């Protein structure tokens, strides 16, 4: 390869081995905000010698995201197993661009009983790996949750 990208799930041994073999290694940490997504795009584009293409990609992303609407509806983004992303994280930032405000769940996990007792105005679910059978994905298909 011309370039090896490492990140949050790459062990130090793999990165060190790539460097010992003479490859250029650039660490791209998992982004926690849109600003970090932009930073990562810039880092990769610079490493590839395509900085203008990176800037064009960022401009396109920002154009498609648009501005954050002033009015935000309360929403709850649920992923497999009832896990809820942080209200100040990257997923919540994307939701804000859609006019939704991620509700904070202090434990980081919503349970079915509380959702049924006090359902949020909007529930957003993830289809990530929806074709894979797992307990986490089965939770999102619970009949009571689907009824909400």
Provide a quick synopsis of the model.
The protein has 148 residues and is α/β, with parallel strands linked by helices. It contains 7 helices and 5 strands, in the order E-H-E-H-H-E-H-E-H-E-H-H. The strands form 2 sheets. It has a 3-stranded parallel β-sheet with strand order 4-3-5, covered by helices on one side.
Record the SSE blueprint.
Elements: E1 3-6, H1 12-20, E2 24-27, H2 34-48, H3 51-65, E3 73-78, H4 90-97, E4 100-102, H5 112-117, E5 122-125, H6 135-140, H7 143-147
Parallel strand pairs: 1-2, 3-4, 3-5
Architecture overview:
With 148 residues, the protein is an alpha/beta fold. It contains 7 helices and 5 strands; from the N terminus they run βαβααβαβαβαα. The chain has helices at 12-20, 34-48, 51-65, 90-97, 112-117, 135-140, 143-147; strands at 3-6, 24-27, 73-78, 100-102, 122-125. The strands form 2 sheets. A 3-stranded parallel β-sheet has the order 4-3-5, covered by helices on one side. Strands 1-2 form a two-stranded parallel sheet. Helix 2 (34-48) runs antiparallel to helix 3. The longest helix is centred in the N-terminal third of the chain and has 15 residues, at 34-48. The N and C termini lie far apart (49 Å). The mean pLDDT is 88.
Low-confidence stretches: none
Strand order of the main beta sheet, please? 4-3-5
The total count of helices amounts to 7
The quaternary state of the protein chains shown equals single chain
What is the makeup of the main sheet? 3 strands, parallel
Structural class: alpha/beta
Query: Helices and strands, in N-to-C order?
Result: EHEHHEHEHEHH
Nearest-angstrom radius of gyration? 19 Å
Q: Could you tell me the number of beta strands?
A: 5
- How far apart, in Å, are the first and last alpha carbons? 49 Å
- Mean pLDDT comes to 88
Strand content: 5-15%
Question: What's the overall geometry?
Answer: globular
Instruction: Give the helix level as a range of percent.
Output: 40-55%
